[in-house]
TrEMBL record:
This is DUF4352 domain-containing protein. The keyword Ribosomal protein does not apply. The chain crosses the membrane at residues 33-53. Keywords: Membrane, Signal, Transmembrane, Transmembrane helix. It comes from Actinoplanes campanulatus. InterPro entries: DUF4352, Immunoprotect_excell_Ig-like. Residues 73-172 form the DUF4352 domain. Residues 1-28 are annotated as: Disordered.
Amino acid sequence: MTYAPHRSAPARDLPSIEDDWDAGPHRRSSRSWIAGGAAVSAVLVAFGAWAVATSPAATVTGVLAGAPPTAQFTVAPTGLRCGVSSVGPSGLEQRATGQFCLLDVIVTNNGREPELFDSGAQRVHDANGEAYAVAEQAAVFLNDRSPALLDRIGPGQTVAGVLPFDVPVDARLSAATLGGGRSTPGVRVTLPDPS
């Protein structure tokens, strides 16, 4: 028995993968995927541009001298009372460790959607530069009327409320940082003398 070597066709005569790809449905399928991907990318870019262009801009117009609103809320202080030792109903009252200073404010929602006013982000500052946060439990007792400062405030709606701060007895408040929240730092305003 003699062995005859196997002879294969020259490489140029064999169909190549590239020939299959160029000639068949694979090429059309890949072009469809590429075109679809490009179209989806264009739509996402257009949506992103639309979202940026139509998002509400920050408004900066004055309500009080030196007290412009933040993007979402305008907060205007209308009065300050210090020396209050407790707030709330008898038996449930909240006692100050020092004294409560009660800052009367008027808050306006400048946005297009109902939003919660972040009372916890409001601060008062004494003459030494110390900052004090709102006494949250006392704020609940002081803002129980309707509409309340602690409820969602509708677009364009103005609500009056009281922000209580538990400060040392000898503290002399001079300024407040108001209107701040999740996305805004707030605006520093000079406080009126306490009554």
